[in-house]
Amino acid sequence: MEKFDLILVGTGFASSFFLRKYLEKSPLDNRVLVLERGIMCPYTERLKAAGGKQSDIFEKRVKTGDTFINDSEDKVWMFDPNFGGSSNCWTGCTPRFLPNDFKIKSLYGMGQDWPISYDEIEPYYTQAEEIMMIAGPEITPFPRSKPYPLPPQTLSSVDKLLQDKYKELYISQPTARATVPTGKRNACCTSAVCGLCPVNSKFTIENTLDYLYADKRVTIRYGSQVHHLLTENDTIKGVAYKYNGKDYEVNAEIVALGANAIFNAHILLNSGDTNPKTGKGLCEQRGTFAYLYFKDIDNVGGSSIITANGYMLYDGDHRKNEAACIIESSNIPFIRNEPGKWRKIARLKFVFEDLPDDNNKVVLSDNFLKPGVQYAKHTSYVDKAMKNLKGNIDKIFSFLPVEKIEMDGYFQKSEYHICSTVRMSDSKEEGVVDKNLIHHQYRNLFILGSGVYPSITPANPTLTLSALSLMAADKIF
Amino acid sequence: MKRRNFIWLLTTGAAGVAAGGYIFFENFEVLVRKIIIKDTSSLSISTEEIDKYLLASRENKSLVNALPFSNQQLLKWHYHFDNPLFSLPYNTKYEIDRSRIVGNFLLSTDFFINKMDATTPVKYIGIYDPYQKPCSNPFSNLFYPDA
Ligand SMILES: Cc1cc2nc3c(=O)[nH]c(=O)nc-3n(C[C@H](O)[C@H](O)[C@H](O)COP(=O)(O)OP(=O)(O)OC[C@H]3O[C@@H](n4cnc5c(N)ncnc54)[C@H](O)[C@@H]3O)c2cc1C
């Protein structure tokens, strides 16, 4: 049977950032096998399809809906199961977590602490930001050892008033949408359809880290779906995967799963992992919108799809009772349907953290190749925060000339951030992996990605999971 | 029940069903046209410009694709029952969708590029589509560098 030094599953953020550090540190004669279930669907083909043109390659992509069995009608799980993973469709919002996010149990008595601190991950945040060439402001609510690589996005007229009032609690959103040309990426020009940037400004694996997969140590196999691990006592010997309808097995010294929070858990369950927490705690944030109608300010001059982040409802003692909330100010071309007041409006999103709950989980299904995803409900931690939201909005924005505030009470069916199915912990009783993302039982198995989050925070997860991948590879190799 | 009451009830019921059927089956494009004409009446805009937009939308299905069936129904019912005395449920959703319709139309004209000047005649310039014409968000810093 073939044998490699490392088998890496998936080519999204979690895998690619791990691979980047691994290749930096490992000898030139090491051999890495990358197994990717999807195809390589290049940006140019995606753009063709978005422009209404026929693309045969685009049609051949693995489709999200075909990959798992969703038990809940009210919940949607979104990702791109092809080369580059959801870097192909993400929005590129990259705030860091706050130092207190790593210790919500000890500070606020809620959820679970992380086995690492902000200070430990900080150097890797900086590295991940340099790899993605993040644009961000000078002053942030989280400490930084280095300035952001690219200048910040421009705030809109309304954002500027909010920043004057709330200072470091209201900032230009750190983003992977380049503000000036960098590498193969162009400068963002606020087309505001960031899922597929028309000018290739946002960081993707394809436009920045594709060279990793051309390294001579690396062999990549597309269309190869890993379904279980080959185990011997507490050691992983290799993986089993399906390619073109046939089963294959391959051995390795080390295996790293970067298949996302749903599939990493599923591969473990398929392999007979007996950790009681495996698959449990599936968690996402909840987001809802509010519209502020102004008497006399036009909301213009902003950048990109989301210009700013507000931290006014994020950290503090309220987290003892209710979920933290991050505010996103959006700059899509929405209007207010009133002559003379067309753009005297702001559209804000309020995104709440939730707590992982074991009733929400990834399970085995009748089909060996498809996980079942069971999502019962978000926790009351979110509802409590939601109940106070209207009052909080009134308070926070009362200094602006607001005519009326409208909330439609609608929650998106997905925040697109799948977390916490293989949580990180000091002990195997509390979680599945240790602080270096190594499985508590299988000591040559890394589990990468936001599945390891003990708590999810209201902030977008991808910068943090990328930093964790860099950190894990740096610590171990 | 008296015969007269019965006939009255039957007629009212039938009228209700007919009106309901009319609203349910009303061509969505016809409704959109009415909305646009009404909501942009304060602007200097001819119906030809609106019709150019509707024709292009029909060709690339952008109108129907922009809103799911349920939202289209919500718009129809609200539009026809719009009155000062009561409002149907989901009014906020309705207002947002109606703004979207008018917004999509105006984004396809030069109105926002001309900085929302209500006195300049508004011209249709092409369906607003960032994939055909990137960088065209008229509220961005490219259009308002000194905001
Ligand atoms: C529409 C959208 C918008 C988003 N916006 C943001 C944002 O603004 N900011 C942010 O922080 N996050 C955002 N996210 C979330 C972000 O995309 C994810 O956090 C991130 O992609 C997770 O990275 P990952 O590598 O763990 O998983 P993925 O990106 O899902 O990659 C997993 C990889 O593994 C492969 N794979 C899966 N199963 C197997 C298998 N069995 N065998 C072999 N290969 C397999 C997949 O094909 C893929 O290559 C967004 C997500 C979506 C969908």
Which keywords apply here?
heterodimer, A: 477 residues, alpha/beta, FAD/NAD(P)-binding domain, seven-stranded mixed sheet, six-stranded antiparallel sheet, 11 helices, 16 strands, 21% helix, 20% strand, B: 147 residues, mainly alpha, 6 helices, elongated, binds flavin-adenine dinucleotide
Descriptive notes:
The complex is a heterodimer of chains A (477) and B (147). Chain A is α/β, with parallel strands linked by helices. Chain A has a domain at 3-52 and 65-151 and 199-282 and 416-476: FAD/NAD(P)-binding domain. Helix content of chain A is 21%, strand content 20%. In chain A, strands 1, 2, 5, 6, 7, 8 and 16 form a 7-stranded mixed beta sheet that branches. In chain A, helix 1 runs parallel beside helix 11 and helix 5 (118-132) crosses helix 11. Chain B has 147 residues and is mostly helical. Chain B has a domain at 27-107. Helix content of chain B is 57%, strand content 0%. The A-B interface holds A 47, 50-52, 154, 156-157, 160, 189-193, 196, 198-199, 291, 298-303, 331-337, 339-340, 342-343, 406-408, 410 and B 39-40, 42-43, 60, 90, 92-93, 95-96, 98-100, 102-103, 106-107, 112, 116, 118, 128, 130-132, 134-147. The complex binds flavin-adenine dinucleotide. Flavin-adenine dinucleotide binds next to helix 1, strand 6 and helix 11 of chain A.
Average pLDDT of chain B, rounded to a whole number, is 85
Strand content range of chain B: under 5%
Tell me the series of helices and strands of chain B, N- to C-terminal. Answer: HHHHHH
- Which range best describes the helical content of chain B: under 10%, 10-25%, 25-40%, 40-55%, 55-70% or over 70%? 55-70%
Instruction: Let me know the largest β-sheet of chain A.
Output: 7 strands, mixed
Please state the structural category of chain A. alpha/beta
CATH level-3 fold name of the domain at 3-52 and 65-151 and 199-282 and 416-476 in chain A:
FAD/NAD(P)-binding domain
Fraction of residues in β-strands of chain A: 15-25%
The H/E string of chain A reads EHEHHEHHHEHEEEEHEEEEEEHHEEH
Instruction: Quickly count the helices of chain A.
Output: 11
Mean pLDDT of chain A comes to 97
Tally of DSSP β-strands of chain A: 16
Tell me the name of the CATH class of the domain at 3-52 and 65-151 and 199-282 and 416-476 in chain A.
Alpha Beta
End-to-end Cα distance of chain B: 70 Å
Rg from Cα of chain A: 22 Å
Write down the overall geometry of chain B. elongated
Q: C-alpha Rg of chain B, in Å? A: 19 Å
Structural class designation of chain B: mainly alpha
Q: How many H/I helices of chain B?
A: 6
